[in-house]
Specification:
about 400 residues, alpha/beta, TIM Barrel, 15 helices, about 10% strand
Length: about 400
């Protein structure tokens, strides 16, 4: 395997053996409604990222489950235009997967019932968002601190979801001094969650350092529902290593696919026992960028679509020789033709750089002190829902701040 395209850590990782891994089964134990996912790979819900345009692009590279960016229950129920757009799908998107955020059981229940009527196949709830605006109000990654509150919210979803599987995504806890994932995972499973996804970092870590995969293994030991591992899946072989080391039944892929939608083809290949194809050369990546831009414009309109595309150009070009010099122009593009113009001085035949495989994308290495409501930790048995966004302005502010956790 000396000629394998990978970083050193994955040079000798064998691809999957026949029968080594099973499809991820969500909804096990239900008479109908079981969702089989193969390969057992889930695109992480990410704000400003996993809209319909990117989901369909990723889906074309390999099967799996592709989760929408998070939508707020209140915004959805109020018919907020942006919320509705982020929740939108297409007739050929199957299975359709939506991540929701809500802190009010009544709102969550109404939203879930409506989404099920629309034909959603899978629902996930965000309980991992570490953004201060959210945790300061007792939402996101603050919710698992109070397992009875978490249980109320999951119960409201499950009771209104019928045969549609409900999953929960969370972090290990607030900080090293306040680890909550075991108790929270048990509470979620006890209320009927079909699986628990664990981002193996704390809220205070944000996206810094290395994910603690041993926590994923510990959660596998204590739960009787599937566990999905999240954190540091940069190469297809990382997914195999995670599942072998932890025993988790599936992996969640986040930052590693930003500007690299073909990662899902590579993941499908290694799970099917094949060595993956080489990544596209730079000229091929430019074509993917343009395709992505056209999809964004079709979804959001020409002006908003091209503005959405600006951040993507930095991710697609990361690591290529001379790309830093053209990135300023890429951040100012006004048309898709501007992309081709900006990169014309770069080498279209340059192979994808190995050094870019594990390069930080989208999130930095900073940490934080997590903000919680005053007195929030005084009574962790309290199941009173925190105050969420209510007005249109509040909803729009939250949707701008929230991410997939």
């Amino acid at each position: 395997m000396t000629d394998r395209f990978s970083t050193e850590i994955n040079k000798d990782v064998p691809v999957a053996q026949e029968g080594e891994f099973a499809p991820l089964r969500l909804g096990e134990g239900q008479v109908t409604g079981v969702l089989d996912v193969w390969p057992p790979v889930v695109l992480a819900p990410m704000a400003g990222v996993t809209n319909l345009a990117f989901r369909t692009l990723c889906r074309e590279y390999g099967a799996g489950l592709y989760v929408s960016e998070m939508i707020t229950a209140r915004g959805y129920l109020m018919g907020n235009r942006l919320t509705s757009l982020l929740a939108s799908s297409s007739p050929d998107e199957s299975p359709r997967s939506v991540q929701v955020y809500g802190a009010d059981p009544v709102d969550l229940g109404e939203m879930v019932a409506s989404l099920v009527d629309e034909g959603v196949d899978h629902l996930d709830i965000n309980m991992g968002c570490p953004v201060p605006k959210v945790t300061r109000a007792g939402g996101g990654s603050a919710i698992p601190v109070k397992p009875r509150l978490l249980a109320r919210l999951v119960r409201a979803m499950v009771q209104n979801a019928g045969e549609v599987p409900v999953t929960v995504k969370m972090r290990m806890g607030i900080s090293e001094d306040l680890i909550t994932y075991e108790e929270a995972g048990k509470a979620a499973a006890g209320e009927g969650a079909s699986a628990v996804g664990l981002h193996a970092r704390t809220a205070s870590q944000l996206y810094s350092g290395e994910a603690d995969w041993s926590a994923i293994g510990r959660l596998v030991e204590v739960l009787d529902v599937p566990v999905l591992g999240n954190g540091d899946i940069w190469e297809p072989y990382d997914a195999l290593r995670m599942m072998r080391q932890t025993g988790c039944q599936g992996v969640i892929v986040g930052r590693g696919c930003l500007g690299r939608p073909w990662l899902f083809r590579e993941l499908a290949q290694v799970f099917n026992g094949e060595e993956p194809d080489l990544p596209p050369r730079f000229g091929g990546i430019v074509e993917i960028m343009l395709d992505h831009g056209r999809r964004l414009q079709a979804l959001f309109g020409e002006d908003i679509g091209i503005r959405q595309m600006r951040k993507w150009t930095a991710w697609y070009t990361k690591g290529f020789h001379g790309s830093a010099a053209v990135r300023g122009n890429l951040m100012r593009i006004k048309t898709l033709d501007d992309i081709a113009q900006a990169v014309q001085q770069l080498d279209m035949d340059e192979p994808f750089p190995v050094t870019a495989l594990r390069a930080q994308r989208a999130k930095g290495s900073k940490t934080q002190s997590v903000k919680l409501p005053e007195g929030y930790l005084d009574n962790r048995d309290d199941d009173t829902p925190p105050k969420g966004p209510r007005s249109i302005d509040e909803i729009q502010a939250w949707e701008k701040a929230l991410n997939g956790g």
